[in-house]
């Protein structure tokens, strides 16, 4: 099974100064910066997924690319822009979540195909419209009319898309988008897409679904799926169910969750093959809005805050080299928690992380280079590196599963 | 154990009207021993203190400079003393009657809380924090002090001292290329682009750049007759340097670049632009959209499109004149109408230097040469 990483312009700066926490004044974003596949010794994904909405913007927001970056993506094509090594695939899509509230997609099939072609994607997903709801018992007659309309619209756009691909002698592999609100409706979408000629189908709108519901849909889809049809799960990881997914015909999926957990999750920030750890929070005095407010208001002394912040970092680093006892690190962290007026304490969780020293056991290039810095929850450069590390852990877990899934599909 | 002692610093007392100010040197590492940086806070509903918190990014920039070779901080920090600080005259007779030589006597008690220190820092908070943080044993600086008549006096001094205007942009663009040594981040970044621009524009100094199509055309304080805005050219260069064809000459590790290759690249391409549109090139933006910000930037994208990844010395083999000639039929630099397709059109001068118009024109030009 293949894993795609959705692009959201997530890169790290190789010249970032960790001791002083500053960028080189001469750094050029994206160009001097490095993607996960460039900092790790091997790419932690089989492919990248790039949304048109992220590049060009959509009704919700202006996109994440500057005009010159966008121009360069179109000029160089997706492979060169992302500096992808051989073997990493590219998949384009619309980013339907960015216009989920619109009545109809604000983008045409033509515009979408032009985007895929100009950027030279290996494959592209047809234009779709997300159904934000699940009702396993509803039939096309009884279901919310908007849901039914969205499914039919998605199918109509898929028909238009594959026609345009064929007519234009495009080298893009067309991927049909399937939407639905129930096992039956998803299965019917897949059946229709197959008869339009699609050999690859992306299942959309399943992110909010509970795993058993996804499995029920996949089981129903499996009844109509032709052996050569490959399924892609949009936006879903659920590593614990991957073997089951693979058995039911899922050939690929994409997800940001392992990456985002490094800085979005309350506890599971640093992944290891066996378990997850909390990252040690040492917020920057300047980056913490509560602290900043309290300093401005004269409630907290900026001098004390800076002194304690530095002491935490100093002790953490010395702990890593064996020159500082754990209690003394926790002591500084607890003082800093008090100064930052943290709503809850993480000290017990920190103890678990620091006792286990999981970064010392990791062989990824980032943990090797940065040591304990990678587990410090602080600023985008550390947090994204930890996210990249998580991707590499996920990827290794994935590759272990692959063996089972090939066996499974041979059986099934 | 906290110490109690007196710091005696040689000083000059200067009379200004009915006030005295004191000039002296002091080790920046010791400033925080007797100085408080009072911040705005409320006590019993009264506004106390007057200073903003430290700006760490700014402090880091200064610290980095201080740790560099040959650093110098010639401007003085300003301190407001309270009445505990005394001045002792050591020599009454000087050549001028407004200056007196003597000693400042500052009582230091390390046990005193922050707010009870005898001196308040009116100006120089970032600098003294940078000295505090720098990896240096000592760093003596110039200081100016006055004994204040209370907090209002101190506050007004603070506002006066911090009311200086930033330097105008045009002047900075002109000063940067020849500035040596450490520069603040936002200037350091601009130095290479401004140097390239200066050489493209330069009329007299470098004979080697006599072949620049921009020669004498870019308007700057010393080239007032130029009609192409310096900012338009600078944006085009920066775009290409960060996102386009000029990036190939840049070293991402230290931000330096092969200047000669960049200049050659620009001269070859823009020389062809000038040759393709001689009339539009010779007219000011008011009469031509080519010398206007929108034209310079859109053609910058055309340059990047046609030449990205190709070294300057190979450009002559590309036959760039051909795609540029193809632009002739779709351009309306000085008269007529731009036809953008899909029924969208603009009068020749209906394009402005806005991101959306630059994008509109760039897309139009790129479509025509593809
Ligand atoms: Zn690692």
TrEMBL record, chain A:
Tree of life domain: Bacteria
The keyword Hydrolase appears for this protein: no
Gene3D superfamilies: Queuine tRNA-ribosyltransferase-like
Sequence ranges assigned to domain tRNA-guanine(15) transglycosylase-like in this UniProt record: 109-260
Keywords: Transferase
GO molecular function annotation: transferase activity
GO biological process annotation, one example: tRNA modification
Keyword Kinase tagged: no
Protein name: Queuine/other tRNA-ribosyltransferase
From TrEMBL, chain B:
Pfam families: DndB (PF14072)
Taxonomic superkingdom: Bacteria
Database matches in InterPro entries: DGQHR-contain_dom (IPR017601), DNA_S_mod_DndB (IPR017642)
Name of the featured protein: DGQHR domain protein
Organism field: Kribbella flavida (strain DSM 17836 / JCM 10339 / NBRC 14399)
């Amino acid at each position: 099974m293949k894993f795609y990483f959705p692009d959201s312009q997530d890169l790290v700066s190789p010249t970032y100064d960790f001791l002083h926490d500053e960028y080189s004044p001469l750094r050029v974003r994206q160009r001097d910066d490095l993607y996960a596949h460039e900092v790790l010794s091997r790419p932690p994904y089989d492919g990248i997924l790039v949304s048109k909405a992220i590049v060009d913007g959509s009704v919700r927001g202006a996109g994440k690319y500057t005009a010159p970056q966008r121009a360069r993506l179109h000029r160089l094509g997706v492979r060169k822009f992302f500096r992808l090594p051989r073997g990493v695939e590219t998949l384009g899509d619309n980013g339907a979540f960015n216009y989920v509230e619109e009545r109809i997609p604000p983008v045409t099939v033509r515009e979408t195909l032009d985007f895929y072609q100009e950027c030279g994607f290996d494959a592209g997903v047809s234009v779709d419209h997300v159904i934000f709801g699940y009702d396993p018992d509803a039939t096309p007659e009884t279901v919310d009319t908007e849901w039914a309309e969205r499914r039919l619209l998605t199918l109509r756009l898929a028909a238009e898309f594959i026609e345009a691909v064929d007519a234009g002698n495009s080298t893009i592999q067309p991927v049909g988008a399937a939407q639905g609100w129930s096992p039956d409706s998803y299965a019917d979408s897949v059946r229709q897409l197959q008869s339009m000629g699609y050999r690859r189908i992306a299942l959309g709108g399943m992110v909010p679904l509970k795993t058993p519901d996804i499995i029920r849909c996949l089981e129903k889809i499996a009844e109509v799926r032709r052996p050569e049809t490959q399924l892609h799960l949009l936006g879903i990881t659920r590593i614990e169910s991957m073997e089951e997914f693979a058995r039911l015909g899922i050939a690929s999926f994409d997800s940001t969750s392992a990456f985002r957990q490094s800085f979005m999750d309350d506890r599971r920030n640093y992944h290891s093959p066996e378990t997850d750890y909390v990252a040690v929070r040492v917020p920057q005095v300047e980056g913490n809005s509560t602290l900043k407010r309290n300093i401005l208001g004269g409630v907290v002394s900026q001098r004390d805050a800076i002194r304690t912040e530095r002491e935490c970092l100093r002790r953490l680093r010395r702990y890593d080299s064996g020159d500082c006892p754990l209690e003394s690190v926790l002591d500084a962290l607890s003082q800093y928690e008090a100064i930052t007026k943290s709503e809850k304490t993480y000290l017990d969780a920190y103890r678990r992380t620091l006792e286990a020293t999981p970064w010392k056991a990791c062989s990824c290039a980032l943990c090797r280079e940065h040591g304990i810095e990678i587990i410090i929850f602080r600023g985008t450069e550390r947090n994204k590196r930890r996210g990249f590390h998580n991707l590499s852990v996920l990827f290794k877990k994935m590759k272990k599963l692959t063996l089972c899934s090939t066996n499974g599909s041979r059986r099934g | 154990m906290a110490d109690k002692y007196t710091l005696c610093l040689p000083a000059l007392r200067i009379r200004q009207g009915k006030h005295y100010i004191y000039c002296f040197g002091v080790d920046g590492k010791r400033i925080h021993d007797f100085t408080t940086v009072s911040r705005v806070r409320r006590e019993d509903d009264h506004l106390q203190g007057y200073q903003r918190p430290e700006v760490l990014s700014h402090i880091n920039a200064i610290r980095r400079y201080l740790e560099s070779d040959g650093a110098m901080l010639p401007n003085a920090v300003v301190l407001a003393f309270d009445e505990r600080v005394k001045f002792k005259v050591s020599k009454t007779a000087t050549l001028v009657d407004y200056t007196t030589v003597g000693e400042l006597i500052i009582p230091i008690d390390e046990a005193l809380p922050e707010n009870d220190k005898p001196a308040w820092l009116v100006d120089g908070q970032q600098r003294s924090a940078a000295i505090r943080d720098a990896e240096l044993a000592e760093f003596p600086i110039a200081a100016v002090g006055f004994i204040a008549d209370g907090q209002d006096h101190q506050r007004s001094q603070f506002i006066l001292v911090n009311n200086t205007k930033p330097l105008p942009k045009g002047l900075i663009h002109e000063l940067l290329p020849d500035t040596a040594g450490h520069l603040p981040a936002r200037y350091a970044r601009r130095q290479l682009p401004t140097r390239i621009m200066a050489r493209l524009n330069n009329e007299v100094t470098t004979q080697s750049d006599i072949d620049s199509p921009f020669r004498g055309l870019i308007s700057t304080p010393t080239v007032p007759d130029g009609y192409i805005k310096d900012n338009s050219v600078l944006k085009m260069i920066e775009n290409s340097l960060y996102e386009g064809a000029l990036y190939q000459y840049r070293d991402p590790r230290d931000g330096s670049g092969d200047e000669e290759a960049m200049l050659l690249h620009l001269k070859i391409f823009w020389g062809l632009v000038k040759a393709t549109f001689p009339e539009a090139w010779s007219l000011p933006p008011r009469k031509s959209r080519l010398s206007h910000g929108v034209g310079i930037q859109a053609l910058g994208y055309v340059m990047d499109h046609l030449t990205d990844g190709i070294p300057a010395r190979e450009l002559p083999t590309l036959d760039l004149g051909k795609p540029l000639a193809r632009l002739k039929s779709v351009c309306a630099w000085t008269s007529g109408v731009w036809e953008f397709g899909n029924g969208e059109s603009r009068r020749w001068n209906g394009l402005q230097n806005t991101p959306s118009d630059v994008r509109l024109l760039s897309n139009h030009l790129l479509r025509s040469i593809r």
